[in-house]
Amino acid sequence: MIDNEIKKVLILGGGPSKIGSETELDASAFQMMVALKKLGISVLVMDNNPFSLTLSEVQPANIFIKEINVKNVIDVLNKEQPDALIPITGGLRAVHVAQELINQGILDDLNVKVLGISKESLKVLNSPDKMKAAINSVSEPAVPSKIIRSESEAFAVVRDIGFPVNIKKVNQRESTERIICNNAEDLSDLLEDEFKDDSVCVIEKSIVGYKQVETVGVRDQTNTKILIAGLENIDAVGVHSGDSMIITPVQTLNDIEYQNIRTATFKIMDYLNIIGPCHIQFALDTNDGSNYYVTKINPIINSNTALAARSTGYPLVYVCTNLLLGNSLNEIKLHNNYHHLTPIMEPTLDHVVVKMPVWPFDNIQEADQHLGTKMKSVGSTIGVGRTVEEALLKALRSSQFSPRDVLPSMKEISNDELISQLIHPKSDRLLVLIEALRRGYQIDELEELTKIDQFYFYKLRALLDVEELIIKEPMKLSTIEVAHDFGFGDGMMAETWQEPIESVRSLYHAENEYPTYKTIEPSAGEFDQNIRSFYSSYEVENESHQESEKTALVIGRGGNKLGPNTAADYYTAEMLIQLHRIGYKTIVMNNNPNALSLSPQISDKQYIEPIQLGAILNIIELEKPVRVFIPGNRHFLLKQLKQYTNLNVQVLPPDQETGVVLPKDVTYALNFFVTKEDSYFISTEKLISNNKSDLDYVTAYETPYVLDDSTLEQDIKLSKEHIASSNWIGLVQILFNQTKNGKSEYVGIRPLRLTETIFLSRATGINWVRALVRFYTKKLDIDALMASMPDVSNRTTQMQATFPFKQLNVKVDHANSSQEVGARIKFKIED
């Protein structure tokens, strides 16, 4: 039963996005916040991520925009006196803060409970010895390892377990890289560096080449457990799970092997007294799957739990929120869209999901593109289909290696380089595997070189067979039908045949053939459920139908990349919320398993599809939306969609491909809301460049930028003149440069960018995404909006972009906005 003593909780957020953490933490915090409110519990939220939807959807008095650290959390606990603290939506940093508060006795003194992570679980986080002891305590095998403090201790361990070994520095704050040593010379050289700063390291047996399998389970206080999903890494141990292609359901384990890891998962959850979610990683000997090791225990919400929930349709966060409050699995009451037995039933799938990583190397070319034990991907996409082949190709298309090709070619690569990349994979791993098959490499030798199961090479070969069919038999209905079954898109065929996409589509439309859509739900069709998440198929039965005569379709950004993508996902989610509030039925199309915008609470329907022209047109044909929204600059996609003049397509913010050459040097800007009739001044803003005053390197912002009254009045007047002579409406930014003699000069005009729109919302307390949505749908009362502008003259707001350079082990002298991975925000109250 629900713990009636809990009336108010503090949720700790995940902070700025980074490698290993995109928007899945905020998505889970948001879903948890919604669930808690429905249960009548007051919610406080603490985070310093400006792109947090959770911060936007909680009453301003209940949000605390501060860095997650012990001091700041204590301040909020003392001030607000919540009954409980939830750290599991904030990643390792939040969990370690909770751990420190427990160790200091502060939570006991304040009578604050920690929900979602037990004291037993806290002990094993980033403590290899304690994790190993926990695993061994339930008679499960852990990788042989030992903490070492000197080179002599390291060589003593090696004499026991032999080479190769992994070395990992012990760090209580975050996971770090495991470095493989194959011989004594490698080990000696490495430890000479590692022990310079009195480091403590872990040395462990290397299991490179083993099969990586993961499980996600939930457990309640009555010791009832269910397995939500098994996740199989297509890449073997040696490639970080975050950089591996992942498939669910598990494909290459027999039932005995699968039941072994399921049993191990439950034993560990019992031992650690897990209440809520748990993600566990395993390494299986490819020669004998019954020989395995437990390699990691993650008793928190992360990208893998998000993938499990997205893949199965199981309402993981809602269920876990109830568990944290004391409900058992059989007591949880779901929305009537779900069957009443869903919380207690292990998901069974009649579809396949493949996750494809997305890497940052286009924006940071200095980074080493080789994949290893340190995670480098900044995002991922998923493909969903009836077969492995279909899901695999959809995931590849969604990751947009080359959205115009049938299967991207690497024919220019030499044989020597091909073999090298088969052994030492890079970010274009999948394309290399395909190229090797094209060149006639045998599957058994590819398995030996890559340690990837033969099963997946047979699936890739089947895709190549279909590609050959497409090339040899163009513009035939039979070819199109086979291609559709295997996940090929209309655009891929049109490109191969050098035909307009409409010519391809008209061929099968003439036979009354259209895609059908299947529900992503956890009972494989066994129960009647009305879950609103879909993927395309070309089978007869269609489970999705037109939602409404007044529907808005919002097209998401897909896999997270560097630049404004995290902000764009927040922006997409806000658009969906605001469109719903003004009376539209809302549909989102996206393929990022970690996306905020795919949270089921913020839209009426979700389609998980490649964000490409053919897939978009298919959804539009079915749903007939009266409006189509695209968040941010998507020039190629917008150009394609604008060919269809019957579509009411709106880009928000307005497309920035203006043809106007922007200046190099800027110091500050004035922000305006512009209608056809007038322009309204909002704020001044300092643009902070990390390379002199170059606009391309502006990665920090501060508002207000203080000007004397005379200069401000003059700048506003000049700005309005330039606005009047432009065609821009909505949020518009006027750029100024302050010369060496202190004078200000106008240098340019542009629409306010995604990131700065959100920054402006935080700084002013007005939701400018909401204002834009209402403005473009003719629902905005501009006078009321401007009258509501608060006086924030005594408060300085600063936002600073964050970058992945440290995690990628790259030194960059001057970072630019295309290399941003996230941002942090803070306020300073003037005396």
Walk me through the structure:
It contains 27 helices and 30 strands. It is globular, with a radius of gyration of 27 Å. With about 850 residues, it is of the alpha/beta class. The chain starts with 7 loop residues before the first strand and ends with a strand. The longest helix is centred in the middle third of the chain and has 19 residues, at about 455-470. The strands form five sheets. It has a seven-stranded antiparallel sheet with strand order 14-13-10-11-12-15-16, sandwiched between helices. The protein has a seven-stranded mixed sheet with strand order 17-18-21-20-19-22-23, with helices on both faces.
Helices and strands: which structural class?
alpha/beta
Number of helices: 27
Please tell me the overall pLDDT: 91
Low-pLDDT runs: none
| Residues in helices, as a percent range | 25-40%
End-to-end CA span: 49 Å
Per the principal axes of the C-alpha atoms, what is the gross shape? globular
Largest sheet, in brief, is:
7 strands, antiparallel
What would you report as the Rg, rounded to the nearest angstrom? 27 Å
Number of strands: 30
Which characteristics define this entry?
seven-stranded antiparallel β-sheet; seven-stranded mixed β-sheet; globular
Write the layout of secondary structure elements.
Layout: E1 8-12, H1 24-38, E2 42-46, H2 53-56, E3 63-64, H3 70-80, E4 84-86, H4 91-103, H5 106-110, E5 113-114, H6 119-124, H7 128-137, E6 145-148, H8 151-161, E7 165-169, E8 178-181, H9 184-194, E9 201-205, E10 211-219, E11 225-236, E12 246-248, H10 255-271, E13 276-285, E14 288-298, H11 303-312, H12 316-324, E15 352-358, E16 379-385, H13 388-399, H14 415-423, H15 429-438, H16 443-450, H17 454-472, H18 477-485, H19 490-497, H20 501-509, E17 516-519, E18 533-537, E19 551-555, H21 565-581, E20 585-590, E21 605-608, H22 613-623, E22 627-631, H23 635-641, E23 649-652, E24 668-674, E25 679-689, E26 698-703, H24 709-724, E27 730-738, E28 744-751, H25 754-764, H26 768-776, H27 782-787, E29 795-802, E30 822-829
Parallel strand pairs: 1-2, 1-4, 2-3, 4-5, 18-21, 19-20, 19-22, 20-21, 22-23
Antiparallel strand pairs: 6-9, 7-8, 7-9, 10-11, 10-13, 11-12, 12-15, 13-14, 15-16, 17-18, 24-25, 24-27, 25-26, 26-29, 27-28, 29-30
Helix pairs in contact: 1-12, 15-17, 17-18, 19-20, 21-26
